[in-house]
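WARN retry 2 of 3 for item q-0093 after timeout on previous attempt; input resubmitted unchanged.
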Amino acid sequence: MQPLNANDHSKIANVYNELHAAGNHALGNPAKPSQAAKPTHTAKPSHAAGQVSRRDALRAVGLVAGAAAIGSYAMPRGASARSMTQPVADLLTSPTEPAEPAGFYRFKVGSFDCVALSDGVAVSSGSPQPTFAPDADKADIDKLLSDRYLPMDRSTMYFHTLLIDTGETVVLIDTGCGDLTGPATGKVEANLRAAGYTPEAITHIVITHAHLDHIGGLLTPGKAKRYANARLIVSRTEHDFWTSPTPDLSGLRMPDDTKKFFATLGKSTFETFKDSLDLIQPGDKILPGFEFIDAKGHTPGHMSLLITDGNDVVFNLADCAHHFLLMFARPEYSAIYDADPTQAVATRRKVFDRIAADRLNVVGYHMPSPGFGNIRRIAGGYEWLPRPWGL
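OK item q-0093 returned
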Protein backbone atom coordinates (compact mmCIF):
# COMPACT_ATOMS: atom_id res chain seq x y z
CA MET A 1 0.00 0.00 0.00
CA GLN A 2 1.21 3.53 -0.78
CA PRO A 3 1.86 6.02 2.03
CA LEU A 4 -0.49 8.95 2.39
CA ASN A 5 0.62 12.11 0.58
CA ALA A 6 0.19 15.73 1.63
CA ASN A 7 -3.03 16.06 -0.37
CA ASP A 8 -4.50 13.03 1.46
CA HIS A 9 -3.65 14.60 4.81
CA SER A 10 -5.39 17.82 3.85
CA LYS A 11 -8.54 15.98 2.74
CA ILE A 12 -8.58 13.87 5.92
CA ALA A 13 -8.22 16.95 8.11
CA ASN A 14 -11.19 18.50 6.32
CA VAL A 15 -13.21 15.31 6.82
CA TYR A 16 -12.49 15.40 10.53
CA ASN A 17 -13.60 19.02 10.69
CA GLU A 18 -16.91 18.07 9.12
CA LEU A 19 -17.22 14.93 11.22
CA HIS A 20 -16.92 17.09 14.28
CA ALA A 21 -19.50 19.60 13.06
CA ALA A 22 -21.99 16.92 11.99
CA GLY A 23 -21.55 14.41 14.77
CA ASN A 24 -20.62 16.47 17.82
CA HIS A 25 -24.07 16.32 19.37
CA ALA A 26 -24.34 12.57 18.90
CA LEU A 27 -20.89 12.01 20.38
CA GLY A 28 -21.56 13.65 23.73
CA ASN A 29 -23.97 12.53 26.42
CA PRO A 30 -26.69 14.97 27.48
CA ALA A 31 -25.51 16.80 30.56
CA LYS A 32 -27.24 15.95 33.79
CA PRO A 33 -28.54 18.77 35.99
CA SER A 34 -25.73 19.95 38.21
CA GLN A 35 -25.69 18.40 41.69
CA ALA A 36 -23.67 19.32 44.73
CA ALA A 37 -20.32 17.55 45.00
CA LYS A 38 -20.61 16.18 41.45
CA PRO A 39 -18.16 17.22 38.76
CA THR A 40 -19.21 20.04 36.50
CA HIS A 41 -17.76 18.34 33.43
CA THR A 42 -20.07 15.49 32.40
CA ALA A 43 -18.76 14.61 28.95
CA LYS A 44 -17.98 10.90 28.96
CA PRO A 45 -14.93 9.75 26.99
CA SER A 46 -15.50 6.83 24.68
CA HIS A 47 -13.98 3.42 25.26
CA ALA A 48 -12.78 3.37 21.65
CA ALA A 49 -9.21 4.43 20.96
CA GLY A 50 -10.39 6.60 18.10
CA GLN A 51 -7.40 5.71 15.93
CA VAL A 52 -7.85 5.52 12.17
CA SER A 53 -5.92 3.24 9.87
CA ARG A 54 -4.79 4.37 6.40
CA ARG A 55 -7.53 2.27 4.84
CA ASP A 56 -10.17 3.84 7.10
CA ALA A 57 -8.78 7.30 6.39
CA LEU A 58 -8.90 6.88 2.62
CA ARG A 59 -12.37 5.41 2.86
CA ALA A 60 -13.44 8.50 4.79
CA VAL A 61 -12.19 10.90 2.08
CA GLY A 62 -15.23 11.90 0.00
CA LEU A 63 -17.74 10.44 2.46
CA VAL A 64 -18.53 13.64 4.29
CA ALA A 65 -22.23 13.13 3.62
CA GLY A 66 -22.13 10.17 6.02
CA ALA A 67 -20.31 12.08 8.74
CA ALA A 68 -23.15 12.06 11.23
CA ALA A 69 -23.62 8.33 10.86
CA ILE A 70 -19.97 7.46 11.48
CA GLY A 71 -19.03 10.32 13.77
CA SER A 72 -19.12 8.26 16.94
CA TYR A 73 -16.69 5.79 15.42
CA ALA A 74 -14.27 8.33 14.03
CA MET A 75 -13.82 10.64 17.01
CA PRO A 76 -13.74 10.01 20.77
CA ARG A 77 -16.39 11.68 22.84
CA GLY A 78 -15.24 14.90 24.40
CA ALA A 79 -12.53 15.53 21.78
CA SER A 80 -12.41 19.05 20.41
CA ALA A 81 -12.31 19.93 16.72
CA ARG A 82 -8.81 21.28 17.12
CA SER A 83 -7.55 18.19 18.95
CA MET A 84 -8.87 15.98 16.18
CA THR A 85 -7.81 18.07 13.17
CA GLN A 86 -4.70 20.02 14.03
CA PRO A 87 -2.41 17.02 14.63
CA VAL A 88 -3.95 14.67 12.06
CA ALA A 89 -1.03 14.84 9.63
CA ASP A 90 1.48 14.39 12.42
CA LEU A 91 -0.41 11.44 13.85
CA LEU A 92 -0.49 9.70 10.51
CA THR A 93 3.14 10.32 9.58
CA SER A 94 5.12 10.47 12.84
CA PRO A 95 5.90 7.40 14.92
CA THR A 96 4.68 7.72 18.50
CA GLU A 97 4.84 5.62 21.64
CA PRO A 98 1.69 3.57 22.26
CA ALA A 99 -0.79 5.37 24.49
CA GLU A 100 -1.62 3.95 27.90
CA PRO A 101 -4.93 2.05 27.67
CA ALA A 102 -8.00 3.74 29.10
CA GLY A 103 -8.18 3.21 32.85
CA PHE A 104 -11.96 3.06 33.04
CA TYR A 105 -14.86 1.35 31.28
CA ARG A 106 -18.45 2.60 31.17
CA PHE A 107 -21.58 0.47 31.04
CA LYS A 108 -25.19 0.69 32.14
CA VAL A 109 -27.28 -1.29 34.58
CA GLY A 110 -30.77 -0.16 33.77
CA SER A 111 -30.67 3.60 34.35
CA PHE A 112 -27.55 3.38 36.55
CA ASP A 113 -24.31 4.73 35.11
CA CYS A 114 -21.51 2.32 35.99
CA VAL A 115 -17.77 2.71 35.60
CA ALA A 116 -15.18 0.00 36.16
CA LEU A 117 -12.05 1.80 37.36
CA SER A 118 -8.61 0.24 37.06
CA ASP A 119 -6.30 0.62 40.03
CA GLY A 120 -3.43 -0.74 37.95
CA VAL A 121 -1.76 -4.00 36.96
CA ALA A 122 1.00 -5.70 38.94
CA VAL A 123 3.32 -8.14 37.19
CA SER A 124 5.66 -10.38 39.15
CA SER A 125 8.30 -12.83 38.00
CA GLY A 126 7.96 -16.52 38.67
CA SER A 127 5.10 -18.98 38.52
CA PRO A 128 1.61 -17.97 39.73
CA GLN A 129 2.19 -20.68 42.31
CA PRO A 130 2.36 -20.55 45.33
CA THR A 131 0.36 -17.30 45.42
CA PHE A 132 -2.42 -19.21 43.69
CA ALA A 133 -3.06 -22.88 44.32
CA PRO A 134 -0.25 -23.36 46.84
CA ASP A 135 -1.16 -27.02 47.38
CA ALA A 136 -1.69 -27.95 43.72
CA ASP A 137 0.50 -29.99 41.40
CA LYS A 138 2.70 -27.49 39.55
CA ALA A 139 2.62 -29.66 36.43
CA ASP A 140 -1.16 -29.23 36.30
CA ILE A 141 -0.81 -25.46 36.66
CA ASP A 142 1.85 -25.30 33.95
CA LYS A 143 -0.32 -27.32 31.57
CA LEU A 144 -3.35 -25.09 32.17
CA LEU A 145 -1.26 -22.01 31.46
CA SER A 146 0.47 -23.49 28.44
CA ASP A 147 -2.80 -24.66 26.89
CA ARG A 148 -4.03 -21.05 27.07
CA TYR A 149 -0.77 -19.63 25.67
CA LEU A 150 -0.02 -17.98 29.01
CA PRO A 151 3.48 -17.63 30.49
CA MET A 152 4.57 -19.97 33.24
CA ASP A 153 7.37 -17.72 34.47
CA ARG A 154 5.43 -14.62 35.49
CA SER A 155 2.10 -13.72 37.05
CA THR A 156 -0.19 -10.75 36.52
CA MET A 157 -2.66 -9.34 39.04
CA TYR A 158 -5.36 -6.89 37.97
CA PHE A 159 -7.25 -4.52 40.26
CA HIS A 160 -10.66 -2.94 39.54
CA THR A 161 -13.04 -0.93 41.64
CA LEU A 162 -16.60 -0.23 40.52
CA LEU A 163 -18.53 3.05 40.59
CA ILE A 164 -22.33 3.08 40.38
CA ASP A 165 -24.09 6.40 39.84
CA THR A 166 -27.79 5.87 40.51
CA GLY A 167 -28.70 9.52 40.04
CA GLU A 168 -29.34 9.79 43.78
CA THR A 169 -26.11 8.28 45.10
CA VAL A 170 -22.61 7.73 43.76
CA VAL A 171 -21.30 4.48 45.19
CA LEU A 172 -17.73 3.21 44.96
CA ILE A 173 -17.13 -0.48 45.62
CA ASP A 174 -13.65 -0.79 47.15
CA THR A 175 -10.87 1.76 46.77
CA GLY A 176 -7.76 0.00 45.46
CA CYS A 177 -4.26 -0.13 46.90
CA GLY A 178 -3.55 3.54 47.42
CA ASP A 179 0.16 4.06 48.00
CA LEU A 180 0.67 0.73 49.75
CA THR A 181 1.94 -1.42 46.87
CA GLY A 182 4.10 0.75 44.65
CA PRO A 183 3.72 2.79 41.46
CA ALA A 184 2.05 0.06 39.37
CA THR A 185 -1.14 0.50 41.40
CA GLY A 186 -2.93 3.29 43.23
CA LYS A 187 -4.56 4.70 40.10
CA VAL A 188 -8.21 4.75 41.12
CA GLU A 189 -8.41 8.46 41.89
CA ALA A 190 -6.75 9.45 38.62
CA ASN A 191 -9.08 7.20 36.63
CA LEU A 192 -12.08 8.39 38.64
CA ARG A 193 -11.25 11.96 37.64
CA ALA A 194 -10.62 10.93 34.03
CA ALA A 195 -14.11 9.40 34.00
CA GLY A 196 -15.59 12.75 35.05
CA TYR A 197 -16.02 12.35 38.81
CA THR A 198 -14.26 13.82 41.82
CA PRO A 199 -13.59 12.08 45.15
CA GLU A 200 -15.99 14.58 46.76
CA ALA A 201 -18.82 13.26 44.55
CA ILE A 202 -18.71 9.81 46.18
CA THR A 203 -21.57 9.41 48.68
CA HIS A 204 -20.96 5.81 49.77
CA ILE A 205 -18.07 3.34 49.70
CA VAL A 206 -18.75 -0.37 50.00
CA ILE A 207 -15.78 -2.25 51.44
CA THR A 208 -16.15 -5.88 50.35
CA HIS A 209 -13.38 -6.85 52.79
CA ALA A 210 -10.47 -5.22 54.57
CA HIS A 211 -7.45 -6.40 52.60
CA LEU A 212 -4.92 -3.74 51.66
CA ASP A 213 -5.76 -3.73 47.94
CA HIS A 214 -9.38 -2.85 48.79
CA ILE A 215 -8.97 -0.33 51.61
CA GLY A 216 -5.57 1.16 50.77
CA GLY A 217 -7.11 3.92 48.65
CA LEU A 218 -9.27 5.30 51.46
CA LEU A 219 -6.42 7.58 52.57
CA THR A 220 -4.14 9.86 50.58
CA PRO A 221 -0.35 9.55 50.89
CA GLY A 222 -0.64 12.33 53.50
CA LYS A 223 -3.14 10.16 55.42
CA ALA A 224 -6.10 12.46 54.77
CA LYS A 225 -9.50 10.98 53.96
CA ARG A 226 -9.64 10.77 50.18
CA TYR A 227 -13.45 10.55 49.96
CA ALA A 228 -14.43 13.15 52.53
CA ASN A 229 -18.19 13.01 51.95
CA ALA A 230 -18.62 9.23 51.82
CA ARG A 231 -20.18 6.82 54.27
CA LEU A 232 -18.44 3.44 54.51
CA ILE A 233 -20.59 0.32 54.26
CA VAL A 234 -18.91 -2.73 55.80
CA SER A 235 -20.02 -6.15 56.95
CA ARG A 236 -20.32 -6.16 60.74
CA THR A 237 -18.61 -9.55 60.75
CA GLU A 238 -15.68 -8.11 58.80
CA HIS A 239 -15.42 -5.10 61.07
CA ASP A 240 -15.58 -7.16 64.25
CA PHE A 241 -12.95 -9.58 62.97
CA TRP A 242 -10.32 -6.93 62.21
CA THR A 243 -11.01 -4.85 65.32
CA SER A 244 -10.82 -7.83 67.68
CA PRO A 245 -7.72 -7.99 69.92
CA THR A 246 -6.35 -11.05 68.09
CA PRO A 247 -7.89 -11.73 64.66
CA ASP A 248 -7.24 -15.34 63.63
CA LEU A 249 -5.00 -15.20 60.56
CA SER A 250 -3.68 -18.75 60.87
CA GLY A 251 -5.33 -19.74 57.57
CA LEU A 252 -3.26 -17.22 55.59
CA ARG A 253 -0.17 -18.86 54.12
CA MET A 254 1.93 -15.76 54.48
CA PRO A 255 4.86 -14.63 56.65
CA ASP A 256 3.99 -13.56 60.19
CA ASP A 257 5.14 -10.00 59.53
CA THR A 258 2.69 -9.76 56.62
CA LYS A 259 -0.12 -11.11 58.77
CA LYS A 260 0.70 -8.53 61.41
CA PHE A 261 0.61 -5.75 58.81
CA PHE A 262 -2.79 -6.92 57.55
CA ALA A 263 -4.17 -6.96 61.11
CA THR A 264 -2.78 -3.52 61.95
CA LEU A 265 -4.06 -1.98 58.73
CA GLY A 266 -7.57 -3.38 59.15
CA LYS A 267 -7.88 -2.25 62.75
CA SER A 268 -6.43 1.23 62.18
CA THR A 269 -8.60 1.82 59.10
CA PHE A 270 -11.83 1.06 60.90
CA GLU A 271 -10.72 3.22 63.81
CA THR A 272 -10.01 6.13 61.46
CA PHE A 273 -13.47 5.88 59.88
CA LYS A 274 -15.46 4.94 62.99
CA ASP A 275 -17.67 8.04 62.71
CA SER A 276 -18.66 7.31 59.11
CA LEU A 277 -19.24 3.54 59.27
CA ASP A 278 -22.50 1.78 58.45
CA LEU A 279 -22.20 -1.81 59.66
CA ILE A 280 -24.49 -4.27 57.89
CA GLN A 281 -25.24 -7.95 57.51
CA PRO A 282 -25.73 -9.68 54.15
CA GLY A 283 -29.31 -9.16 53.03
CA ASP A 284 -29.69 -5.73 54.63
CA LYS A 285 -31.42 -3.15 52.42
CA ILE A 286 -29.34 -0.04 52.93
CA LEU A 287 -29.03 1.18 49.32
CA PRO A 288 -31.79 0.79 46.70
CA GLY A 289 -30.66 -1.58 43.96
CA PHE A 290 -27.86 -3.18 46.00
CA GLU A 291 -28.00 -6.75 47.33
CA PHE A 292 -25.22 -7.61 49.77
CA ILE A 293 -24.25 -11.28 49.53
CA ASP A 294 -22.43 -13.38 52.09
CA ALA A 295 -19.21 -14.59 50.43
CA LYS A 296 -17.21 -15.60 53.49
CA GLY A 297 -14.04 -17.62 53.25
CA HIS A 298 -11.58 -15.22 51.71
CA THR A 299 -12.15 -13.24 54.89
CA PRO A 300 -14.81 -13.91 57.56
CA GLY A 301 -17.00 -11.01 56.42
CA HIS A 302 -16.18 -10.96 52.71
CA MET A 303 -19.14 -9.80 50.60
CA SER A 304 -20.15 -9.87 46.95
CA LEU A 305 -22.89 -7.66 45.55
CA LEU A 306 -25.71 -7.84 43.04
CA ILE A 307 -26.61 -4.46 41.54
CA THR A 308 -30.07 -4.29 39.98
CA ASP A 309 -32.14 -1.66 38.20
CA GLY A 310 -35.30 -2.87 36.53
CA ASN A 311 -34.51 -6.12 34.72
CA ASP A 312 -30.82 -5.33 34.35
CA VAL A 313 -28.21 -6.69 36.77
CA VAL A 314 -24.48 -6.99 37.30
CA PHE A 315 -22.75 -9.18 39.86
CA ASN A 316 -19.71 -7.77 41.67
CA LEU A 317 -17.46 -10.77 42.29
CA ALA A 318 -15.09 -9.04 44.75
CA ASP A 319 -12.42 -11.63 45.65
CA CYS A 320 -14.30 -14.86 45.03
CA ALA A 321 -11.57 -15.51 42.44
CA HIS A 322 -8.09 -14.04 41.97
CA HIS A 323 -7.00 -15.63 38.69
CA PHE A 324 -9.05 -15.63 35.48
CA LEU A 325 -7.95 -19.14 34.48
CA LEU A 326 -6.71 -21.18 37.40
CA MET A 327 -9.60 -20.59 39.81
CA PHE A 328 -12.16 -21.20 37.09
CA ALA A 329 -10.76 -24.32 35.48
CA ARG A 330 -9.88 -25.61 38.97
CA PRO A 331 -12.38 -24.03 41.38
CA GLU A 332 -10.86 -26.13 44.17
CA TYR A 333 -7.70 -24.02 44.02
CA SER A 334 -7.24 -21.44 46.76
CA ALA A 335 -4.98 -18.43 47.32
CA ILE A 336 -2.49 -17.71 50.06
CA TYR A 337 -4.69 -14.74 51.04
CA ASP A 338 -7.69 -16.91 51.99
CA ALA A 339 -8.42 -16.85 55.72
CA ASP A 340 -10.42 -20.09 55.41
CA PRO A 341 -9.38 -21.85 52.18
CA THR A 342 -12.00 -24.58 52.45
CA GLN A 343 -14.83 -22.12 52.91
CA ALA A 344 -13.46 -19.87 50.17
CA VAL A 345 -13.66 -22.76 47.70
CA ALA A 346 -17.21 -23.62 48.77
CA THR A 347 -18.26 -19.99 48.37
CA ARG A 348 -16.63 -19.76 44.94
CA ARG A 349 -18.54 -22.79 43.67
CA LYS A 350 -21.83 -21.45 45.05
CA VAL A 351 -21.31 -17.99 43.56
CA PHE A 352 -20.13 -19.34 40.19
CA ASP A 353 -23.12 -21.69 40.01
CA ARG A 354 -25.53 -18.81 40.58
CA ILE A 355 -23.83 -16.58 38.03
CA ALA A 356 -23.69 -19.31 35.39
CA ALA A 357 -27.27 -20.48 35.95
CA ASP A 358 -28.69 -16.94 35.80
CA ARG A 359 -26.34 -15.86 32.96
CA LEU A 360 -25.34 -12.76 34.90
CA ASN A 361 -22.92 -10.10 33.78
CA VAL A 362 -19.98 -9.87 36.18
CA VAL A 363 -17.38 -7.38 37.29
CA GLY A 364 -14.39 -9.17 38.80
CA TYR A 365 -11.99 -7.21 40.97
CA HIS A 366 -8.99 -9.27 39.83
CA MET A 367 -10.14 -10.17 36.33
CA PRO A 368 -8.25 -8.84 33.26
CA SER A 369 -9.12 -5.27 32.30
CA PRO A 370 -11.73 -3.97 32.26
CA GLY A 371 -12.85 -6.78 34.57
CA PHE A 372 -16.21 -7.23 32.83
CA GLY A 373 -17.40 -10.67 31.71
CA ASN A 374 -19.48 -13.78 32.23
CA ILE A 375 -18.99 -17.22 33.74
CA ARG A 376 -20.09 -20.52 32.27
CA ARG A 377 -19.79 -24.11 33.38
CA ILE A 378 -17.42 -26.44 31.56
CA ALA A 379 -16.36 -30.01 32.24
CA GLY A 380 -14.72 -30.13 35.64
CA GLY A 381 -15.11 -26.44 36.39
CA TYR A 382 -15.93 -23.05 34.91
CA GLU A 383 -14.68 -20.58 32.33
CA TRP A 384 -14.25 -16.81 32.51
CA LEU A 385 -15.58 -15.17 29.34
CA PRO A 386 -14.38 -11.58 28.86
CA ARG A 387 -17.28 -9.49 27.63
CA PRO A 388 -16.55 -7.54 24.43
CA TRP A 389 -16.43 -3.79 24.93
CA GLY A 390 -19.57 -1.98 23.93
CA LEU A 391 -22.09 -4.78 24.48
